[in-house]
Amino acid sequence: MNVSKLTIVTGALLVLTGVTAYLVTGTSSVTALIPAFIGVPMLICALISRRPNLYRHAIHTALVIALIGALGSLMNVVKIGQLITGTAERPAAIATSVIMFLLCVNYVAAGVYSFVEARRRRKPA
Questions:
Q1: Which of 55, 68, 98, 100 is the one with CA 20 to 30 A from 17?
Q2: Has the keyword Transmembrane helix been applied to this entry (predicted)?
Q3: At residue 124, does pLDDT exceed 70?
Q4: 89-93: long-range contacts at Cβ-Cβ below 8 A with a sequence spacing of 24 or more?
């Protein structure tokens, strides 16, 4: 899967995660939409990346957004033990953060790998 398509898939899954979390928590907190706030700009970057002259800039921007999303979700991801033991104050926030973290880290890893491979292909033999 190319990085543009992966950007669309990841952005859409983040939006879906955020909207689902918002609805499941009874629309009581806008913070449940944080994954969507990361996913929407990624989707915009995916659309921009369709222009060949803007591809690298758009995908680099999407990677930065995903990195920010991964780092921002860490404060709840470290509480995963509380979720497993059933002692978490906000289990939905932890679960949502774990999903967001996994999606963002996967995207960043795939994006970095893609750019490393592209650079290798460009080097003269």
A1: 55
A2: yes
A3: no
A4: 92/21, 92/24, 92/25, 92/32, 93/21, 93/31, 93/32
